[in-house]
Amino acid sequence: MAPRLEGKVAIVTGAASGFGKGIVIKFLEEGAKVVIADLSTEAGELVAKELRCAFVKADVTKKDDWEQLLKEACKQYGQLDIVVNNAGVTYTNKPTEDVTEKDFDLVMNVNVKSIYLSTNVLVPYFLEKKRPGCFIQIASTAATRPRPRLTWYNASKAAVINATKTMAVEYGPDQIRFNAVSPVVGSTGMTHLFLGRPDTPENRAAFVTTIPLGRPSTPADVANSCCYLASDEAQFITGINLEVDGGRCV
């Protein structure tokens, strides 16, 4: 059987580590060409060399950087088919009244404005070329099952899901699909921020008790879900939020 993403070109943001790197690995295994986008030049170049794909240093809150990503994808691989908006941030789990304006601006800019900019720059490309497109946003179970002390992070991810569903309806007639994937907390560089305490086996175990399948999400879990949504197997799927959460949101 042919690789599921053969002949497709993808941009994956925040791709130098964590879920993003896992998505890139899976996409490459399934035949896609990938442009890695990350704010860290050192980490991005290292992963690009390791996985043999293109890298663009990009701040997802800057329109110019999105324009450069599109330019690079077309220059290196001749086209663009898939966009995975994986880059995201949070602030340390804390009482809502202690959240600073800087904290608020950070999660809204990186988690929400980046989606606005990616679609503002890339949707016109798909419309002009009259080619199908696929956007996948990495949201969070925090959007649909919000817990205390991460209010504005939760709200930013809820905005991502709402915007995804709205654009799925708006651009469906143009064959541009929009879907979201919502992982439960996994093992990434931000895990300690979600927990609000050191990422130790003991602290993680307390959270895992809330997940029926008994473990955190992994990059492979998220990558497998993204691969399906990006593939032609999901060509009739748009506007969904796929919870990759071991049953936490039930």
From TrEMBL:
Xref: Pfam families: adh_short_C2
Q: Which organism is it from?
A: Calycina marina
* Organism superkingdom: Eukaryota
Q: Which Gene3D superfamilies match?
A: NAD(P)-binding Rossmann-like Domain (3.40.50.720)
Output this protein's name.
Answer: 3-oxoacyl-reductase
InterPro entries tied to this protein:
NAD(P)-bd_dom_sf, SDR_fam
List keywords of the entry alphabetically: NADP, Oxidoreductase
Could you tell me which NCBIfam families the record lists for this protein?
A: PRK07231.1
Supply the PANTHER family for this chain: OXIDOREDUCTASE, SHORT-CHAIN DEHYDROGENASE/REDUCTASE FAMILY (AFU_ORTHOLOGUE AFUA_5G02870), OXIDOREDUCTASE, SHORT-CHAIN DEHYDROGENASE_REDUCTASE FAMILY (AFU_ORTHOLOGUE AFUA_6G09140)
- Name its GO BP terms in alphabetical order: abscisic acid biosynthetic process
Which Gene Ontology molecular-function terms are recorded? oxidoreductase activity
